[in-house]
Amino acid sequence: MAKRTLYNKVWDQHAVTRLPSGQTQLFIGLHMVHEVTSPQAFDMLRERGLKVAYPERTFATMDHIVPTRSQQRPFADSQAELMMQAIEKNTKEFGVNFFNFETGKQGIVHIIGPEMGLTQPGMTIACGDSHTSTHGAFGTLAFGIGTSQVRDVLASQCLAMDPMKVRRIEINGELKPGVTPKDVILYIINRLGVKGGLGYAYEYAGDVFDNMSMEGRMTVCNMSIEGGARAGYVNPDDTTFDYLKGREYCPQGAEWDAAVEKWRNLASDADAEYDDVVVYDAADIEPMVTWGVTPGQSVGISQTLPDPAVVADSGERKAAELAFKHMSLQPGQDMKGVAIDVAFLGSCTNGRIEDLRAAAEVVRGQKVAESVHAFVVPGSMQVAKQAVKEGLHQIFMDAGFEWRAAGCSMCLAMNPDKLQGNQISASSSNRNFIGRQGSSTGRTLLMSPQMVAAAAITGKVVDIREFAGSGAKEAVNV
Ligand SMILES: CC(C)[C@H](C(=O)O)[C@@H](O)C(=O)O
Ligand code: SF4
């Protein structure tokens, strides 16, 4: 049976039945859980006297509310402490795997799944978190769900789902020096719009993704949701298998070989049919930075800011005008040279070891600008451990960065890490919505970790390609 996409194959393998509503009852291979969207779901189970159907397929961590400075219990914030106690109680009572601090494996939910090899090609993966699309980097069908669906998956390991359309996003050629996976996804969202992916799963294909590391693919898939696509994936290949081989939860020995054989066949057929195909040229992408309050309001770093007056769509025009007002930026100006107050390196988009390595290369031997508060928040305890092993934490601290403990941190500021007043941050995270980083007047500029590092050093937005810092030349090719 040819002409099928990975989406078709994985969906069909997990379809239990067609529901009277027309939806498909889909079996979920892996359910990841965090402290924010799970308490009510567990409560609902309790109310109905239900158990977790497949505790061995359910894995919990805490990330959003975790303070990154001191994790001494009880947490200083009593709300956070209560949420912590809830997930401890729920995972214990329902027999769910829980990666707490003591395991050494705590971290952002979308970082720990892949790093432990829980995320494997061909799986369906759900989590009460929109950035679950990250796991699609491994050729999985992974999507965020709401709390009532978290309840459904806990109770039945199944979800009632509407089918998705598939858009193939093909980018061919070679990325220019200084252009990272973060720039690629910001470029895609800029071109297709923040709602362009509604109803779609995005399949990322072509030379750029074939040549991209797993970390890079995760960065891209992570932000699919910012383009409106609930899921995004890359077909599994040798890069995927090399990354997974030997990881804790992956099959070993003969079982591994059999699994790889099976996974290879999941990739979309060469003649697969798509609902839509867009093709871009890698050479057209340059380092990107957002200027507005959605991840789609971005420019290439050498371009000037757009003029809302010439935007045809009245809704978009208004949105752009509001964004300019909030950001105190002007149409026609450069982003290069905009002063920043805070530099945040972390999040499930860019808090992996490869991101920290690349940023450390930019920072090595330099000093953070006096006007900037710069800090690094590894995506997980294991990322932190590896970074320490490689001496990256020292490079950051010598430069004047704070080195913190794993968590979501200032990505959404559900913890003490918050912007103050109208501070501007250079941030390696994924959302620049108003108030996102903890202050209603705060301003967020999304960019690659390398660009965040360079902004921390110079105190302003720079073009990484022009950054004269030692190590920058090596870093730009990551
Ligand atoms: C708290 C959680 C529900 C939320 C999400 O779903 O994405 C958060 O992770 C975010 O990034 O905004
Ligand atoms: S790091 Fe940010 S985007 Fe990722 S799960 Fe945490 S809050 Fe959500």
UniProtKB/TrEMBL annotation:
Cofactor section: [4Fe-4S] cluster
CDD domains, per database record: IPMI
Molecular function per GO: 3-isopropylmalate dehydratase activity; 4 iron, 4 sulfur cluster binding; metal ion binding
SUPFAM superfamilies: Aconitase iron-sulfur domain (SSF53732)
Origin: domain of life: Bacteria
Subunit structure and binding partners: Heterodimer of LeuC and LeuD.
Family annotation (NCBIfam families): leuC, PRK05478.1, PRK12466.1
HAMAP family found in the cross-reference section: LeuC_type1 (MF_01026)
Protein name according to UniProt: 3-isopropylmalate dehydratase large subunit
Taxonomic lineage of the native organism: Bacteria, Pseudomonadati, Spirochaetota, Spirochaetia, Spirochaetales
